[in-house]
UniProtKB/TrEMBL annotation:
Residue intervals passing through the bilayer: 36-55, 108-127
MF terms (GO), sorted A to Z: amino acid transmembrane transporter activity
Residue ranges occupied by any Amino acid permease/ SLC12A domain in the UniProt entry: 2-65
UniProt protein name: Amino acid permease/ SLC12A domain-containing protein
Subcellular location: Membrane
Alphabetized UniProt keyword annotations: Membrane, Transmembrane, Transmembrane helix
Ranges in coiled-coil conformation: none
GTP-binding recorded as keyword: no
Length: 174
């Protein structure tokens, strides 16, 4: 449930941000008096129910092609997964049997996001006349300097606090 809440927050704010930048319909720029992008939240909530209809592990495999494209971009730019701040332990050797076995009764809940993604992606490409970015041109570094600076500030602030007790270290590791 916590993941669903955070996904609703992230999804609605992302859609709102896209609308502000002119990359999504203007209706999603509407906010209430408390600053909640309610139109974006409604759309995200409409799709959220589908998540709870599908409890199979296959639903987690929808990001495989995005991951593969990201890996191609890393390789094309001479970067390693070891350069990333985090890498999943079993990637890139995850399971690729998402569509097996095919069952009609779970098709809609399992695979609805695949056509939705392609319809939205293709619509955006056609409406805004954008091109597909080659793996060599994918921007993997914008904002990296700022993130590194913030991390450096955080580390210095932690060091300024002095040594931590064993209990504090255990608590922080949870």
């Amino acid at each position: 449930m916590s993941a669903a809440n955070s996904d609703l927050y992230i999804g609605s704010r992302t859609l709102y941000g896209l609308a502000v930048e002119g990359k999504a319909p203007k209706i999603f720029k509407k906010v209430n008096r408390m600053g909640v992008p309610w139109t974006s939240l409604l759309l995200c909530t409409a799709f959220c129910g589908l998540v709870f209809l599908n409890v199979s592990s296959s639903s987690a495999k929808g990001m495989t092609s995005v991951f593969q494209r990201f890996m191609k971009a890393l390789k094309a730019q001479g970067l390693s997964r070891d350069d990333l701040p985090y890498k999943a332990p079993f990637q890139p050797w995850g399971r690729f049997d998402t569509f097996l076995p095919f069952k009609v009764d779970t098709f809609i809940t399992s695979y609805i996001l695949i056509p939705v993604f392609f319809v939205l992606w293709l619509s955006y490409k056609l409406i805004y006349k954008t091109r597909i970015i080659s793996p060599r041109e994918v921007d993997l570094v914008t904002g990296l300097r700022e993130i590194d600076e913030e991390e450096e500030k955080f580390v210095k602030a932690q060091e300024a606090l002095g040594p931590q007790s064993t209990m504090k270290k255990i608590w922080d590791s949870l």
